[in-house]
Amino acid sequence: MTDQSLSPPIGIARQPHAAAGPATRWFSPRLPAGLPGFVKFAALVILASIVLTPLIATALGGFKELGDLRANPFGLPKLWVWRNYWDILSGARYWQMLGNSLFISLFTVFLTLTLASMAAFAFAHLHFFGDRFLLNYLLLGLLFPVATAILPLFIKIRDLGLLNSHWGIVLPQTAFALGMAILLLRNAFKELPSELLDAALMDGCGYIRYFIHITLPLSAPILSTVAVIAFVNSWNNYILPLVVLNTETRYPWTLGLMAYQGEYSTNWQLVLAFITLTILPAIVMFVMAQKYIVAGLTAGAVKG
Fold it and tell me: How far, in Å, CA of 85 to CA of 64, rounded?
């Protein structure tokens, strides 16, 4: 065999060997490496400042005297007055109102999770006549805030004998929280693989056991999301306790602010200290469940 037999046929050009090293890039349309990261970081700093500035100003205002607070509302105190916080923490009124708020919020969360999870499971896996209409009817509650229905609510609570009772707050709050809770939970339950339900039914597992032992454990993130939303909304509710309650010993913390407001003057430094101490439980709960909130909203707000 000669060298000519190894050469390529006439008309076919010999392909050059690839050069060693990385291939040459003719175009590199990339932005400067630091620009996207810098823009994101700046946006996060601005958003964090908008959120944290009122919280920090409120906490620092609790350490000031009234004159210093009026002259310098956002700066550091000239004289750190720890007595403002100590007077609140050492008094029985703060702990009583904190206990009332915890009772109302925790029972609201419990009833919301219990009722919404069962209803959402039924709407996600059971098909019956009028199920779509009933779901849309329940979701109508998202269109009406509590303030728009305060008069009929007051009449109904009075007729049920729940005036000046914590249950007169818990039950309406649960009713108004069901719309959003059912929407999030139903979408999350529909995201679960249908093969799990088919296999469970073939093995003799009924809907109730499937709901308790499979659906609820796999839906922990969205349940945490619904719990935090219901807790924070109940913890910060003001208008409903104002209408229902008329005994100071039953007041939640939102009505406790009125104790520091006089007819002619207001102790704003005590008001800010009281607010700082009472919003801490909601902030701590939100921070602890932040990971589950993001995962739950992502899993439960995609499909409808």
Answer: 10
Higher pLDDT, 109 or 199: 109
pLDDT at residue 304, as a whole number: 45
Phi, psi of 38 (to 5 degrees): -65, -40
Rounded CA separation 275/143 (Å)? 30
CA distances to 37, 175, 227, 281 from 240, in Å: 45, 13, 20, 20
pLDDT in tens, 244-294: 998 888 999 888 877 777 655 678 888 888 888 888 888 887 777 777 766
Superfamily of domain 92-263+273-300: MetI-like (1.10.3720.10)
- Assign residue 32 a region: left if phi > 0, alpha if psi is -120 to 50, beta otherwise? beta
Domain locations along the chain: 35-71, 92-263+273-300
